[in-house]
Amino acid sequence: MAEAPSYYAIIPANVRYDQNLPGKAILLYGEITALCNQKGFCWASDDYFAKLYGVTKMTVQNWLKSLESENYISREVTYKKDTKEIEHRLIRIEMTPTKKNLGTPTQKNFRDNTTSINKNHSKAEKKDSIDYQKIIGYLNAEAGREYKNVGSNRKPIRARMNEGYSEHDFALVIAFKCKQWVDNNEMAKYLRPSTLFGEKHFDEYLNEAKQSLKKAKPAEPQGLSVGEGSARAANYLAELEKQYEGD
Q: Whose CB among 41, 43, 142, 144 lies 3.0–4.6 Å from 178's, allowing a Cys bridge?
């Protein structure tokens, strides 16, 4: 039976918003950090990840290759003595923010980086870079509400971010459900963080919003964007959808 990963998965902003990565490679990175938090390295095989995500091992290999090419991870392979048969494959997190600043990785870097994850993942939760006010403020503006930037409203946002969703995903859900519910007396009461961003329905609402966009192709919701201070051209949303479509 496969060993379950720890609760915490860390997906820093430079990984979440890297448009060179297939969408689910970003989620795979989070899974790897959770496993590294247990042992300092990720022991899982391609078959383990394939079963976890319901994809082929070739797809997993492509995701790993994309993460490695961007220097977000490194892989170490050991072979059985005097053969080319793989005995162990370990994946380690490379903490350098961007590949432009990366030299040749060393074993010391790997040890230091994975130790840093083990010691500091709880601090990362406290010092996250999520702009809660931007998301809550956008909901207030669209729904005509006055929700506060408090712990109970932050909690579902942080949980979805830890699962790999982006600020732009929140914007899509907010814009779509507000348009759908704001003038409906029965449903308008559900325009609240606990409902829109909750684990039970968020992915469902996001997929509804994306399907609606594919049919109507409206302008990108204002107020939130994927990159800090980034202004996207008219074709931005279509490109983003391609990135986050499943392989």
A: 142
Residue type, 69: S
Q: What is the pTM of this model?
A: 0.41
What's the pLDDT tens digit per position in 14-38? 888 888 888 788 989 988 888 876 6
- Contact, 87 vs 38, CB < 8 A? no
- DSSP letters spanning the chain: -PPPPPS-----HHHHT-TTS-HHHHHHHHHHHHHHHHHSSB---HHHHHHHHT--HHHHHHHHHHHHHTTSEEEEEEE-TTSS-EEEEEEEE---S-GGG-----HHHHHHHHHHHHHHHHHHHHT----HHHHHHHHHHHHT----S-HHHHHHHHHHHHTT--HHHHHHHHHHHHHHHTT-TTTGGG-SHHHHSSTTTHHHHHHHHHHHHHHH-PPPPSS--SSTT----TTHHHHHHHHHS--
Residues 6+ positions from 156 with CB-CB distance below 8 Å: 193, 194, 197, 198, 199, 202
**Residues, the chain, total?**
247
Structure tokens at 1: 């039976």
- Give the residues across from 42 on adjacent strands: 91
Q: What is the pLDDT of residue 181?
A: 93
